[in-house]
Amino acid sequence: MTEPQPPLETGAEPSTGAHGILPAAPLTGPIETVEPAAPTEPGAPARKRRFVDLAPLKASPAFARLWIGSAISGIGAQMTIVAVGLQIFDMTGSTMMVALVGGVALLPMVVAGLWGGMLADAFDRRLVLMLSSLTGWAAVLGLVALSAWDAALVADGGRAAVWPFYVLTTLNTVAATISGATRSAVTPRILPAHLISRAAALNGIAIGIMLTAGPAAAGVLVATVGLPVTFAVDAVLFTAGFLGIVGLPKLPPLGEAVRPGLASLRDGVRFMRQAPNIRMSFVVDIIAMTFGRPFALLPAVGAVAIGGGPITVGVLTAAAAVGTLLASLLSGPVAHVHRHGVAVARAITAYGGCVALLGLVILGAMSGWFGPVGADWSRVSWPALALAALALAGMGASDEISAIFRSTMLLTAAPDDMRGRTQGLFTVVVAGGPRIGDLYAGAAASLVALWAPPLFGGFVIIVLIAVVTRAQRTFLAYDARHPTP
Question: What are the CA-CA distances from residue 212 to residues 247, 314, 354 (Å)?
Fold first, then answer.
């Protein structure tokens, strides 16, 4: 039996700054400053909101442009993620080969996250964003050409090689990792610190839109017009994200820039050694993503468990995004929750429960509890689909709650000259954890059964979160009014 966790505290906004964060610009007009801001909100209202707060969009036109552009281009990016899985499953018929998409990209992504964080601390963050985004766009154009070539070969009775898809997907992942680290480090430079948690909630809405519209559109497009067109839509939607980046002000380093290299990396490692709360935020997320990442299983789930084929894959992936979106829309109270560590621990525990539920549904479907199924949409098991979608929606909602508080902790507790490197590591964790999870899911499904990874993984998450948070008491004691790394 675990020790009861302290209750979530609510109240006024944080009133004290920390770690060298400079005062905010007066809130008398749009914020386009490149100066960081203090977490004190002048005249903060005591009234608690139920729904998401749009104040960050009103306070900073630069943030608004970046947010809108990222949401639109993110829809295309999620389409490509789903389409790559479907492409490789169509070429190989192997869940393990789908899981290897993440596994192959893991080491390059780790290097890119660490190096990208150093680039964000050393150079103009707007320039780093532009160059990394253009690299990702080039990789997507390569996927368009390669998928079209495979389709032409299929018409003649052949197939393209699989390995170029891994190469282009890895290049896209590297670019996205650098962009993600840099984009997160930009937020405290274009918003006052008291709006960071609300910006994180808005980012959750953007992610919800991406993950709802992107996979659903991918499933429909793949089933109707084919994979090459699906990849091409991502290339077109990229334009919106790039315009949001172009609209940013210049964001050079505020102090003396440390050139990327071993010295910069050592500084980041030294800071992390003295930041137990930030370290624990990474640990709990790695646990959740390693043992609770079922998305590599979905092509097989749509083919042999629940039925419905590519459309089921799109529906189930979108269900997780609906949960993310709903949690973000109802995120008004986040500005009044101060015990961020407690909130993260509880959210990830709920996440583990939803993962286990999904495994139970897959087990039931494969055992015939919901009747016969087929790979086409007309033979889908509706009860199993509904229950699986409910489990994935719960995963999306709980993961979004965790993400809001983890990202707020990181952005407010770390000083600006470390934000690029800490965000780089954060991006490695956020992107690398799912790839480890894909490998776990693929291996466990191959060795045991399709239902085993989520069913066992969900219970492992619940147990490990209780153990590690009890071992690191400062994480549960973290108070956003006095942010300490």
Answer: 26, 9, 18
- Please give the Cα distance from 319 to 155 (Å, whole number): 34
For Cα atoms 158, 160, 166, give the angle at the middle one, nearest 5 degrees: 155
SS (H, E, C) 357-424: HHHHHHHHHHCCCCCCCCCCHHHCCHHHHHHHHHHHHHHHHHHHHHHHHHHHHHHHHCCHHHHHHHHH
Q: What share of the chain is helix, strand, coil (3-state, %, to 5)?
A: 75, 0, 25
* Residue ranges per structural domain of the chain: 55-252+271-476
What architecture is the 55-252+271-476 domain classified under in CATH? Up-down Bundle (1.20)
Both tokens of 271, joined, read: 């800071």
Of 10-24, 195-209, 363-377, 381-395, the range with the lowest mean pLDDT is: 10-24
Helices (H), 162-261: 163-190, 196-224, 227-246
pLDDT in tens, 67-116: 899 889 989 888 888 889 888 888 888 878 887 887 788 788 778 877 87
| pTM of the complete model beyond 0.85 | no
* 3 Rama sector, left if φ>0, alpha if ψ -120 to 50, beta otherwise: beta
